[in-house]
């Protein structure tokens, strides 16, 4: 799992065309809430190797975050075949993150 948010982001169209299951994590490297969610993701992500994880730096003028109407960081958007299944905003427990991943993989 990468520790840094990528300053380059796919376009909304690219995201909609992504096959399979994807987690897009919107945030910034300097965000305390974003740093706090890393241990939660580190516990859950290894159990879901089929889920692609993208860490995207967000901020004003960042079109992908705006297309998902991201307001707070971190926002975790879980997609199946480019369609949002669920999202978490500032999750604070492993169980919340696990629940979201179960929702993502369980509907397939």
TrEMBL record:
Q: Which SUPFAM superfamilies match?
A: Thioredoxin-like
Q: Where is the Thioredoxin domain?
A: 1-106
Query: CDD domains of this UniProt entry?
Result: TRX_family
Q: Which Gene3D superfamilies match?
A: Glutaredoxin
> What Pfam families does the annotation carry?
Thioredoxin
Q: Which InterPro entries match?
A: Thioredoxin-like_sf, Thioredoxin_domain
* Protein name stated in the entry: Thioredoxin family protein
């Amino acid at each position: 799992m990468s520790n840094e948010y990528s300053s380059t982001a796919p376009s909304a169209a690219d995201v909609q065309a992504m096959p399979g299951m994807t987690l897009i994590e919107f945030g910034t490297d300097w965000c305390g809430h974003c740093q706090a969610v890393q241990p939660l993701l580190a516990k859950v992500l290894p159990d879901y190797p089929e889920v692609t994880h993208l860490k995207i730096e967000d901020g004003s003028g960042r079109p992908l975050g705006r297309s998902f109407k991201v307001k707070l960081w971190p926002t975790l958007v879980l997609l199946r075949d480019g369609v949002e299944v669920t999202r978490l905003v500032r999750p604070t427990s492993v169980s919340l993150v696990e629940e979201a991943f179960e929702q993502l993989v369980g509907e397939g």
